[in-house]
Every structure is written in structure tokens, then in C-alpha cells.
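Lab meeting, item 3. Inverse folding demo.
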């Protein structure tokens, strides 16, 4: 009997001990779960497209979008990051297709497209003018464009003036006076007779009725103004021609592009008549006068034409590549977000962190944009999906100054007055309507503030005028302290019937140092 009682007592004791331990375990678990649940409660709800529109319960934004909850870790997790920093998980980065590139330094020059016409190289043109009156015989060229060689006889001319000049030469030779002979030779040369024919006249000892006129250089005939039997008069242009070993192309560039073009700049040319071929040349001359009608500047380019495929008056397509010696910081043009007079990019800070920064841009060429200020060499910027990141980051980012210009001693405390619009004792928050705060570039507006732990909110009521101290914490949040009733100001003297914080324009507000704490604008007044 005693043994049975002992066994029952021992079993009861063991069961009691196990029950106590289990109860403590599950009680701790429930307490932990309760604490976790409490810590995971949203602090407030915010509009997806306007972080200044905040409420203490779920609802709709002025745009009809569901408000999203903000938790404590959302406010404290990035407190050491610059304003406007957003964090994106690797999975979301992959889904968005985020791509980055580095800021680099390179020569920046645009490729300028133009058109032009092929012409003779005018430095190699030649022409034959008549220096005497006479008649044409044995014309050897019949059409423009015919090729001729240097020294080739183009035509023969009979002129009484040439016959008399030959007789003077022969008479001087018979007289044996060298001075007269040299003078007669010079006269024949001035009339267009070459040395070979003069020597032949002296050797034969008699005049030639017809003097041959020869081509001075290789080339093609450009103009032909005579025919067999035609009569010539002095100063008449008879034949002209030129070489096509090199050609000139006259092109035009717009006034805004003219400063890029310098002599020696490279150019590429192709013509529709010869598909698949292109020629490399250089800018030979820049005309000094702008065309007032077309607002374009003429540019002359020179190309080699050894194969003689290019013909005068051909239509040509051109790409000019300006020369530049200076290397500048550049980013892809697609990475730059332009809004009004502002340009900005999304900076990749690493570890999934991104923020919008303002930059100052310069010239644009070949898909690249010159960066004058705001970025450093090798900075990583986003080139794809950056508009989506910017829409979130730019709401809180400081875009009133270039990224590199950061004030050294910002104001950390401001004393001001305001009117209480809402009291949230459970959250230790006040909704206050305050005047402009020039120290931080804030306009007059209604916003929410977290109050210091030693502040007693029970002594205040809605609509009461108060004086308070705003302090910027190291975390970037703003808190209120030293809150006192301001009897000198009465809320009845202020007309705020037209103020709606949900539709306020904060474009002029300097958010350079601002990271709003939980804010809930006056719900009743804003919604009425």
C-alpha cells in the first residue's frame, strides 16, 4: 500500500514539474509572439506617390491608391544613409532589370551628318586662253569629260601674229645677234608657244603655219568652248580641265554645329551611286561667312580619288568627326533624367542602395552627356529601370543643390510657433501647422512631428497655438520639445480653410537634411 502511494506521489510531482516548465515555455513563447506582433505594428500609413500624405490608419490616397504601411525598421534601417536613399532587394533588382555603368572620362565629340557635291580640286585646275587671234585646226578633244595627258596636243591654231613672231626669230638668228634671238624667243613664249616648238623652228629655219596647243597637265576636260574651224580672239577661254586624283566636296553644317569643326577633322563619305564603298578624307577649309538664308556654314573637304570612281557633281553623304583633345566626365544619355531645368541621375551606392542626385550637364555627343558637376570618376549610375527608382528616391532626395556641394554646418534646431491640428498621444505625435522655416527652406505647411519623451500631450488641445523647438536628430528625424502654450497667437486669427496638405506643392522645399518622422496631417480638416 505504501509502495503504491509512493509511486502515485512521485508521478504527481513529476507531472506538476513538467506542467510548470511547459507553462513557462509556452507563456514565454506567447509573450515573445505578442512582443513581435507589437513591434511589427505599422507606425502609420503613407500615400505611395506622396510621402507627405500620412494617416494613422489604412485608407486611400488623394489619387485613389491604397495607403502603404510604414514600420519602425523602415525609419531606422537607413538612418545613416543620405536623404532619398532607397534599398532594393536583389530579387527586385533582377525583376526590374536594373543595369548600372560607371562614370568615365573620354573625349567628347559628336558625329555630324551632312551632304554635299563632288567637285574638282580647284588647286589642280588648268585652263587655256587665246593670246592671239586665229583659227582652229585639228581639234583632238570632242566632249567634256574626256581624259587628256600632259603634253597632249589639244588643237592647232593659225595666227598671223604667230607667223610674224617666228619670222622675227629667224631674222635675229640670221643676224647673229644673241640679244635679238633671246627677245624673239621670249615673245613667242608669251604668245603660248612652248620651247620645243621654238627650238624646232630654229632647227628647221622656217616658220610654222600652225602652232600646236598642248595640255599642261593630266586630267579631264571641264569646259570646251571651241570647234574645228572656229575663230579665236584674245582673252577667250578655250579649254579648261583638271585632275581627279583628288576631289573637293562642299558640305554645309548648321550654325550650332560650326564650333565643332576645325581644319584637319576627319570625315567619311559615301555616295548612292557606288553602294558599299566609302572614302576617308579631312576638312580642308572652313568658309568664314555664314549663309544668312539657311543659317549654315560651308565646309570644304578633300578626298583621294586614285581609282577615279568619284565624278564631279556626284551627290555625297558625309559624316564629320570633329577633333578634340580634352577628356571630360561623361555618362550615357539614357541615364540622365531631365525635368524642367534640372538634370539628375540615379546613383548606385552598393548593397542594393540607390538615390537620386542632381547633376550639371554640358555638351551632348554620340549618345554621351558631359557631366560638369555632381558626379566623380567611376561613380556607378543606373541606366535601366532608373525612372522607377527615381520616382521613389526623388521624393525625399535633396535636389536643390548639386550632389558635391554639402553644407558643413547645417542648422540643427529652430524655435518657432504653430497651431495644433491633431494630437496622437498613443504615437507621441502632434500634427502642427507652422509658418515658413527659412533655416531649412521649409514653406508654411501642416506636418506631423514626434515629440520628446518628456513632453506631456494631455495639456494640449486641437486648435491651440503653441511655441516649440524643432530638433534634427542624428538619425535625420525631427522631434519637438519645449512645447508651450502661445497665448500671443490665437488660432482664430488664422484662416486655413484652403490648405490641403495632400495637394501641396513642395517643389520649392529644401529637403537636403530632412527625413520626415511619422506624420499624419490633420485628417478631419483635410478631408472636409
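The presenter then showed the designed sequence:
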Amino acid at each position: 500500500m505504501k509502495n503504491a502511494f509512493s509511486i502515485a506521489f512521485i508521478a504527481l510531482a513529476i507531472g506538476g514539474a513538467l506542467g510548470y516548465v511547459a507553462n513557462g515555455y509556452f507563456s514565454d513563447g506567447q509573450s515573445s509572439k505578442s512582443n513581435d506582433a507589437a513591434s511589427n505594428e505599422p507606425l502609420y500609413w503613407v500615400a505611395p506617390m506622396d510621402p507627405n500624405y500620412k494617416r494613422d490608419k489604412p485608407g486611400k490616397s488623394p489619387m485613389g491608391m491604397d495607403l502603404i504601411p510604414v514600420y519602425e525598421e523602415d525609419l531606422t534601417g537607413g538612418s545613416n544613409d543620405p536623404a532619398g536613399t532607397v534599398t532594393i532587394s536583389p530579387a527586385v533588382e533582377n525583376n526590374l532589370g536594373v543595369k548600372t555603368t560607371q562614370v568615365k572620362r573620354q573625349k567628347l565629340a559628336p558625329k555630324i551628318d551632312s551632304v554635299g557635291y563632288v567637285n574638282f580640286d580647284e588647286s589642280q585646275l588648268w585652263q587655256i586662253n587665246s593670246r592671239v587671234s586665229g583659227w582652229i585646226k585639228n581639234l583632238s578633244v570632242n566632249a567634256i569629260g574626256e581624259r587628256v595627258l600632259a603634253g597632249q596636243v589639244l588643237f592647232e591654231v593659225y595666227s598671223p601674229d604667230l607667223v610674224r613672231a617666228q619670222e622675227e626669230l629667224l631674222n635675229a638668228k640670221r643676224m647673229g645677234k644673241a640679244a635679238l634671238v633671246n627677245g624673239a624667243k621670249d615673245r613667242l613664249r608669251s604668245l603660248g608657244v612652248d620651247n620645243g616648238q621654238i627650238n624646232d623652228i630654229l632647227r628647221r629655219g622656217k616658220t610654222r603655219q600652225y602652232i600646236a596647243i598642248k595640255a599642261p597637265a593630266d586630267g579631264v576636260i571641264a569646259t570646251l568652248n571651241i570647234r574645228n574651224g572656229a575663230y579665236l580672239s584674245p582673252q577667250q577661254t578655250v579649254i579648261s580641265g583638271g585632275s581627279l586624283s583628288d576631289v573637293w566636296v562642299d558640305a554645309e553644317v548648321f550654325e550650332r554645329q560650326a564650333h565643332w569643326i576645325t581644319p584637319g577633322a576627319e570625315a567619311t563619305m559615301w555616295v548612292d551611286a557606288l553602294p558599299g564603298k566609302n572614302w576617308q578624307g579631312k576638312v580642308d577649309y572652313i568658309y568664314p561667312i555664314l549663309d544668312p538664308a539657311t543659317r549654315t556654314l560651308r565646309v570644304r573637304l578633300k578626298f583621294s580619288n586614285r581609282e577615279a570612281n568619284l565624278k564631279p557633281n556626284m551627290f555625297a553623304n558625309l559624316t564629320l568627326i570633329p577633333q578634340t583633345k580634352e577628356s571630360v566626365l561623361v555618362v550615357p544619355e539614357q541615364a540622365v533624367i531631365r525635368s524642367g531645368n534640372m538634370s539628375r541621375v540615379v546613383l548606385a551606392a552598393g548593397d542594393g542602395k540607390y538615390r537620386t542626385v542632381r547633376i550639371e550637364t554640358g555638351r551632348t555627343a554620340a549618345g554621351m552627356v558631359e557631366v560638369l558637376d555632381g558626379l566623380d570618376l567611376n561613380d556607378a549610375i543606373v541606366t535601366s529601370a532608373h525612372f522607377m527608382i527615381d520616382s521613389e528616391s526623388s521624393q525625399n532626395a535633396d535636389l536643390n543643390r548639386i550632389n558635391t556641394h554639402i553644407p558643413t554646418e547645417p542648422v540643427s534646431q529652430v524655435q518657432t510657433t504653430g497651431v495644433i491640428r491633431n494630437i496622437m498621444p498613443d504615437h507621441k505625435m502632434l500634427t502642427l501647422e507652422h509658418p515658413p522655416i527659412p533655416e531649412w527652406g521649409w514653406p508654411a505647411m501642416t506636418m506631423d512631428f514626434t515629440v520628446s519623451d518628456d513632453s506631456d500631450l494631455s495639456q494640449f488641445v486641437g486648435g491651440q497655438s503653441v511655441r516649440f523647438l524643432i530638433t534634427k536628430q542624428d538619425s535625420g528625424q525631427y522631434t519637438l520639445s519645449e512645447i508651450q502654450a502661445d497665448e500671443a497667437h490665437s488660432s482664430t486669427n488664422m484662416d486655413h480653410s484652403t490648405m490641403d496638405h495632400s495637394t501641396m506643392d513642395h517643389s520649392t522645399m529644401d529637403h537636403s537634411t530632412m527625413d520626415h518622422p511619422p506624420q499624419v496631417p490633420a485628417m478631419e480638416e483635410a478631408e472636409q
